Amino acid sequence: MDLLGVLQILDSTVRMATPLLLACLAGLFSERAGIFDIGLEGKMLMAAFFAAAFAAFTGNVWIGLLAAIAASLALSLLHGLASITFRGNQLISGVAINFLAAGVTVVIGQAWFDLGGRTPALEGAGRFQEVTLPFADALAPVPVFGPIYAELISGHSPLVYVALLFVPLSWWVLFRTRFGLRLRAVGENPAAVDTAGVSVVALRFYAVGICGVLCGIAGAYLATGLAAGFVKDMSAGRGFIALAALIFAKWRPWYALYACLLFGFLEAIGNRFQSIELLGIAVPSQFMQALPYILTVVILAGFVGKAIPPRAGGEPYVKER
Amino acid sequence: MPKWVDILLIPLINLALALFVSGLVVAYIGENPFEAVAILVKGAVGSPYGWGYTLYYTTNFIFTGLAVAVAFHARLFNIGGEGQAGLGGLGVALVLLALPWPHWSIALLAAMVGAMAFGAFWAAIPAYLLAKRGSHIVITTIMFNFIASALLVYLLVNVIKVPGSMSPETARFGVSLPNANDVLPWVGFPRSTPLNVTFVVALLACVAVWVLIWRTRLGYEIRAYGHSEPAALYAGISPVRIIMVTMLISGGLSGLMAINAVMGEAERLVLDPVQGAGFVGIAVALMGRSHPVGVFLAALLFGMLYQGGAELEFERPAITREMIVVIQALVILFTGALDNMVRSPVERFFVNLNKRAA
After folding, report:
1. In which band, very low, low, confident or very high, does the pLDDT at A244 lie, cut at 50, 70 and 90?
2. InterPro entries this protein is in (chain A) (predicted)?
3. CB–CB of B329 and A96 under 8 A?
4. Is B314 part of a structural domain of the chain?
5. What are the extents of the domains in chain A?
6. CB pairs under 8 A between A and B
7. If you average pLDDT over every residue of chain A, what do you get?
């Protein structure tokens, strides 16, 4: 394969990794604060629908983005209400949110657009356009570096760069600010945080809120960046792959980036080749699709490094027993 | 708090809330919710045809609901019903295609063994990983759903489809289960309804699970482990054994669902034989409070919703089939996640009542 072919795959890797990365960082904030979130998938789907719907109504993709964030945030607050306020089971709440999004997007979509659950195809200002970084065209003829800059680094939707910026930002917030320290503490030992006079409930709601905003951006990217409109079930398990990436990354931001790039790469390869030959053995595309899940199980099993989740994860905090 | 409040009143309030919110959604999309309910109920139970489909779906949901319920008793959350049932379907297909079965009853027994073995196997890996390596069972069972789906697609496309055929499905099985039309000709079930003798198997499974959980030593140990792991350990109950056995039973029950869908209805293995029934099982187990009787009633309710929902979509195209998914989500939300929202005030009310009475 020539340089251009490789670059196309890597370019596709970045596109595929972006929604995973945003959802993965969303899960990072929530789970670091001790709130398991298997509803990433549902929030992304709901956000994708609202992004596409409002972009279609207004012709303005930024309004679509805001609607996506609002919709995802609403589901996050529902998750918070169930799992923080009413101390319900976080996993069950997440399952409910996934189904709710899968159903509501089609039911409302049919009522609004009458297109069998789709939204109208978006064009022009209704989609995120590709950003051409400065000098991309001028540098393109430079050997090796030119194509890499023009093809791989430049020419993505703005949300791709936003997602990449969120990696150092998340790291800084979680590991270099007081808020981040408290947020991590609330996921490890909420009683200690409570004793220090900091509200566990408020911190967890902040974390769930950040999770909602990031899932909203992820969903908006799916419907207005990667695709041109919403189709039924368009998140297609990405929320679960993001969850897998989060475990793969052992709940750390930079590793989340690497894990998402790896899973995005697998998806890019799977999209491009029906089956690939590896050392003389034909690897079926279904294996490539299942690989992120298999890798996660292997990591969870602790055969290759142990993934230890935040200690208070999944348990509602009860102030006094 | 009286017992009937816990097992009857609170689930009914939760269900009413879920249906109320569903009604709001229906009203929002410009349809009359009461009319919708009328069409739904009529479509589900208004004719032998409706009953045939309703009870067919009920059969699926009894199996997947029992599977989740058994795991709940050991405080294990098995989300993997979808994958376990899919693998169960593979087991059914392999058994039925392996030999020319002389009679449906022998074939049914053999297929049940195949379904349970494959379903249990698919649950055994996450169970082992939890018992021995401490991997979170919810995450591993979710991952195994995706792996199962990829595996089934691969096998159907590349290995077990009819040679030369384009469609990804196996050959038709040589045997078919007695249909409701054959068994109960006087009721007037049309030939086309997929209801078959598996329904009886599902009812027997309810009884078997009740006996297992409340009338056997193993069931006691499962419940003891579910209530308190340290206490169970102190009583000499091995957590590894309980996790493994419970998940094997749970996976086996999920696998049995394939008897109904693969052997009873499709009579061949097709892509996605489970059709979301594994996930409906979660809602069914939550609503049924993990009791076989509750599971049966909740499965019947969801069977009605699925069949009635199809009729509803036919009569009122604005209300798409996904409305059922919304109702399912709201039932899970209110009976599972938001349970305390209703429970706490109701508990307080009865505590006050008792105080005043005393």
Report:
1. confident
2. ABC_transp_permease
3. yes
4. no
5. 3-235
6. 155
7. 89
| Token pair of A44 as six digits | 């992304």
Q: What is the pLDDT of residue A269?
A: 82
CB A288 within 8 A of CB A231: no
Q: Nearest by CB to B142, which of A38, A81, A106?
A: A38
Instruction: Give, as one character, the DSSP assignment of residue B171.
Output: P
A162-173 pLDDT, tens digit each: 999 999 999 999
Q: Which residues of A touch B325 (CB under 8 A)?
A: 99, 102-103, 106
Closest residue in A to B136 (Cα) is A300
pTM for the whole thing?
A: 0.91
CA A80 – CA A88 distance, rounded (Å) = 10
Residue whose token pair is 């490789």: A6
Give the pLDDT of residue A279. 67
**Stretch (H or E) spanning A260:** helix A253-272
Q: Which of A213, A231, A216, A246 is nearest to A102 (CA)?
A: A231
Per the domain annotation, does B233 fall within a domain?
yes
Q: Among A75-84, A290-299, B13-22, B268-277, whose mean pLDDT is lowest? A: A290-299
**Alpha helices by DSSP H, B29-168:** 33-45, 48-73, 81-98, 104-133, 137-154
Q: What is the pLDDT of residues A30-48, one digit of tens each?
A: 999 999 999 999 999 999 9
CB atoms within 10 A of CB B347: 15
Give domain status of residue B45, yes or no: no
Q: Which helix (H) or strand (E) holds A74?
A: helix A61-80
**CATH number of B113's domain:** 1.10.3470
Q: Specify the number of domains making up chain B.
A: 1
Q: Is residue B264 part of a domain?
A: yes
Test A96 with B147 for CB contact under 8 angstroms.
no
Cβ within 8 Å, pair B326-A300: no
d(C-alpha A269, C-alpha A280), whole Å: 17
Please give the radius of gyration of chain A, using alpha carbons only, rounded to the nearest integer: 20
Q: Which domain holds residue B236?
A: 59-304
Report which of A250, A200, A185 is spatially closest to residue A85, judged by C-alpha positions: A200
* Closest CA in chain B for residue A237: B146
Average of per-residue pLDDT values in chain B: 92
Closest residue of chain A to B26, computed from CA coordinates: A107
Q: What is the ipTM of this complex?
A: 0.90
Cα separations (Å) of B14 from B107, B129, B300, B304?
Answer: 42, 35, 17, 18
Amino acid B250: pLDDT:
97
Are residues A286 and B153, on separate chains, in Cβ contact within 8 Å?
Answer: yes
